[in-house]
Amino acid sequence: MNRILIIIVAFVALSFAAKAQTATATAKPIRPTDTTKLYHPNADAKADIAAAVKRAAGKKNVLLQIGGNWCIWCIYFNDLVKADPELDKYLRANYEVVHVNYSPENKNEKLLAELEYPQRFGYPVFVVLDSKGKRLHTQNSAYLEEGNGHSKKR
């Protein structure tokens, strides 16, 4: 009888431990801002990029963050940058940022073809343009991920 009781207690304890780990692993970061409209399906991405290149005016690069409001990793990255004063300041000082929408409403297929299909890396994907609009680099965001978010260090 004692052996069965020990097995039952051990099973219950393991079940609670597993549930606690699952809850911790799937906990979502606190969202400091409402980013449900971070990406705009009706936006003219090409015009937004041209305006960002003009604002960069030889002083900054342009960062295209390609994704959508449906993409939790896109939101996580934006939240990390906005919530961290050091990252936010660095990004604003060095880049003009354009959120390029990819969703069923607007896939921006022509623009993404011109950028050599960066979406093949998944979402979000980052494309860095120089201040004249020339593509310098395409970055898969997976390299920046850590746990349930993105790493400031990476």
Structure, described:
22% of the residues are buried. With 154 residues, the chain is of the alpha+beta class. The radius of gyration is 21 Å and the shape is globular. The protein has 5 helices and 6 strands; from the N terminus they run H-H-E-H-H-E-H-E-E-E-E. The protein has a domain at 45-150: Glutaredoxin, CATH 3.40.30.10. Mean pLDDT is 82; it is low at 4-32. The chain has a 4-stranded mixed β-sheet with strand order 2-1-3-4. A two-stranded antiparallel ribbon has the order 5-6. A hairpin with a 5-residue loop joins strand 3 (125-129) and strand 4.
CATH topology of the domain at 45-150: Glutaredoxin
Relative strand content: 15-25%
N/C terminus separation? 54 Å
Structural class: alpha+beta
Q: What coarse outline follows from CA principal-axis ratios?
A: globular
Give the neighbour order of strands across the main sheet.
2-1-3-4
Number of helices: 5
The chain-level mean pLDDT equals 82
Q: Could you tell me the number of beta strands? A: 6
| C-alpha-based Rg, rounded | 21 Å
**CATH superfamily of the domain at 45-150, called what?**
Glutaredoxin
Low-confidence residue ranges: 4-32
Oligomer: single chain
CATH C-level category of the domain at 45-150: Alpha Beta
Assign a percent range to the helix content: 40-55%
